[in-house]
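Comment thread on ticket #2218

A.B. wrote:
> Attaching the input chain for the structure job we discussed in standup.
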Amino acid sequence: MRTDDRRYDYAAVDVADREQLRPVIAEFRPDLVLHLAAALRDDPWADLVRSNIMTVVTLIEELGSVGGPSPCLVLGSSGSVYGSPVDAEAPFPETVACQPLDPYAVTKYATEHAARVAASGNGVRLVTARLFNLTGPGLQDRHLCAVLARQVAMIQLGLAAPRIRVGPLGATRDFIDVRDAARAVTILGAAPAGIYNVGSGEETVAGVVLDTLLDLAGLSGKVERVDLPGRAADCPRLCGTVQRARSQGFTAEISLRRSLGDMLDYYRRSVAGQASA
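C.D. wrote:
> Ran it. Output below, let me know if you need it in another format.
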């Protein structure tokens, strides 16, 4: 797809398809690539391996074949790669030996290693951004914050009974707004090769997310909670140190409350539109 706006241009390709990718790389000749595409948690193993590993190797090999100055690839990885490391407690520095606990995290960690080897052999500078739990408007409701925001929006608009279905909320996470994460990966495009945790630097109990959404919607104390079973492979604490990213000039600016408020607004518009359709 082409556009008349000179600020950007688009080409839709399957990154895992070398024949589609090669002419695009040759035309654009990028010096910086932000690679954030991936299969998601709960997707089948085959999709996780293809989307999270093979696309990255193909992309790096094609970037290396263009010639000229070495391009930089910022690889969007995940804080979930840490899992529950042996003999280490959160917050985790980038040097911790990772112990991923589910297929998604395993393939993201494998992608980091595959990308490191491929980048070394193809003259590509590799920056790995381990993104922690994203929040903010537009988040798919396959993720905790969005699952809760959608349910709260429906209750607030009178489209659902005042009942929230949710799993255990005692785990802690580092929630970072997607707009801060976007700034971070852009800043890291100029950083030295290496691994960087991308988060707010604040560890938050997941239950705070629900309490904040209910408060923002004016529903505190008015909603019944229906408890669902938790995941078999879930980390009780998942957060990382962020000094390395801060040393490159990145600091998260958007508070969790503002991020959840914007997400709630997004889902109010979304569910209202679906109800009127």
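A.B. wrote:
> Thanks. Noting for the ticket: The chain has a mean pLDDT of 93.
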